[in-house]
Specification:
- The structure is a single chain.
- The protein is an alpha/beta fold.
- The protein has one domain: Carbon-nitrogen hydrolase (Nitrilase/N-carbamoyl-D-aminoacid amidohydrolase).
- Helices cover 24% and strands 27% of the residues.
- It contains 9 helices and 14 strands.
- A 6-stranded mixed beta sheet has the order 5-4-3-2-1-14.
- Helix 1 runs parallel beside helix 3 and helix 5 packs parallel to helix 6.
- It starts with a strand and ends in a 9-residue tail after the last helix.
- The mean pLDDT is 98.
- Bound molecules: D-[(amino)carbonyl]phenylalanine.
C-alpha cells in the first residue's frame, strides 16, 4: 500500500509593511480552506509568512526591528490558524521570524515550525545559511540585511518521523547549498519542505534575468534527485514595498521532475499527491548512499569553509 500524502504548496503574494498579522493570517486561512477542499493533509507556507521581507531596509532601532518578530508560536495572531488546521486535520509548515530568549540573551532566528495533523508541534528549524550582508550598503537599491538581523540557526538540519514518512525543513537560501539536502538525505528524508523570499534583483551580481529562475529551480531539482526526496517550495512572491520577489513555487519529485508549479505572483495553491514510496527507487539504486558514498574522500567538505586553490 503506497504512502500517498496530498500536499498543498501555498504561495503567498506580497505582504506590505502596513499589512497586519491579522490580515495576513486571514490569507493563510483562505489558502488552508482551499487546501482542505482539495483534500490536503499537509500545507507548506512561505518563509517569513507573517510580515513583509523587512531585511530589505537598514534599521537601527531594535524595537522597530523586533516588531517583525514573534516572541511565541502560536501567538494571539496565529492561534486561529493553528486551531483551524487542527479542526480540519491538516498539518503545516509556517515560516516566521522568531525572537527567542537563551539565558539572558535575546536571539533572533529566521525560523519555520512544523505542526502535524493533530495540531501537535513536530519540530522547528532555524535558518543556517543567512545570505546578504551585515552592514548598511547605501549603494544598493535595497538592502539584504539577513546577516544583520538574524542569528545563525543552532538546530542543525533535523528530520522527523511524521505524516507517515521522514520529513525535514529548510529555508530559502538553504535551498542553494547541496549540504542542506545531503545532511537530511543522510537521515533518510523523504519530504523536504521550504519557504522562500527571493528578490528578483540581486545587487551582488549582474546576471541575465532568466538566471534567477534557473538557479532557483536547478538547485532544488538537483537536491531532490541526489537525495531521493520530494521537495516542496513555497514563495512569498510579487512586489513588496517596490521590491519584486520571484514566484516559482513548486513541488519536485525525487526524480528531480517539477510536478507542480505556480504561474502567478499572488496567493496560489499547488496540490500534488506525493507518493512517499517514490523515493525508494532512487535511494536504493543510483543514490544508495551506504553502497556508493566514500566519505573518507570527502573530508574537505566539512573541514574547509572557503575554497583554497593550489599554490601558484
Ligand atoms: N533570499 C535569497 C535566496 O537565497 C539571495 C537571497 C537572493 C541569494 C539572490 C542569492 C541570490 O533565495 C533569502 N531570503 O535567502
Amino acid at each position: 500500500m503506497s504512502r500517498v500524502l496530498t500536499v498543498g504548496c501555498a504561495q503567498l503574494g506580497p505582504i506590505q509593511r502596513r499589512d497586519t498579522r491579522v490580515e495576513v493570517v486571514q490569507r493563510l486561512l483562505a489558502l488552508l480552506h482551499k487546501a482542505h477542499a482539495r483534500g490536503c493533509q499537509l500545507v507548506v507556507f512561505p518563509e517569513m509568512a507573517l510580515t513583509t521581507f523587512f531585511p530589505r531596509w537598514y534599521m537601527t532601532d531594535q524595537a522597530e526591528i523586533d516588531s517583525f518578530f514573534e516572541d511565541s508560536m502560536p501567538n494571539a495572531a496565529t492561534q486561529i490558524l493553528f486551531d483551524e488546521a487542527k479542526r480540519l486535520g491538516i498539518g503545516f509548515y509556517l515560516g516566521y521570524s522568531e525572537l527567542a530568549t537563551e539565558g539572558n540573551r535575546r536571539m533572533h532566528y529566521n525560523s519555520a515550525i512544523l505542526v502535524d495533523r493533530r495540531g501537535k508541534t513536530v519540530g522547528k528549524y532555524r535558518k543556517i545559511h543567512l545570505p546578504g550582508h551585515a552592514e548598511h550598503e547605501p549603494q544598493r537599491p535595497f538592502q539584504h540585511l539577513e546577516k544583520r538581523y538574524y542569528d545563525v540557526g543552532d538546530l542543525g538540519f533535523p528530520v522527523w518521523r511524521a505524516f507517515d514518512g521522514v520529513v525535514g525543513m529548510c529555508i530559502c537560501n538553504d535551498r542553494r547549498w547541496p549540504e542542506t539536502y545531503r545532511v537530511m538525505g543522510l537521515q533518510g528524508v523523504e519530504l523536504l519542505m521550504l519557504g522562500y523570499n527571493t528578490p528578483e534583483f540581486n545587487a551582488a551580481i549582474v546576471e541575465p534575468a532568466h538566471h534567477r529562475m534557473l538557479h532557483h529551480f536547478i538547485t532544488m531539482q538537483a537536491g531532490a534527485y541526489q537525495n531521493g526526496t520530494w521537495v516542496v517550495a513555497a514563495a512569498k512572491a510579487g512586489i513588496e514595498e517596490g521590491c519584486m520577489l520571484i514566484g516559482g513555487s513548486c513541488i519536485i519529485a525525487p526524480t528531480g521532475e517539477i510536478v507542480a508549479a505556480a504561474n502567478t505572483l499572488g496567493d496560489e495553491l499547488l496540490v500534488h499527491d506525493v507518493d512517499l514510496d517514490a523515493t525508494t527507487p532512487i535511494k536504493t539504486s543510483v543514490f544508495n548512499f551506504a553502497k556508493h558514498r566514500r566519505p573518507e574522500h570527502y573530508k574537505l567538505i566539512v573541514e574547509r569553509a572557503g575554497a583554497v586553490p593550489p599554490p601558484e
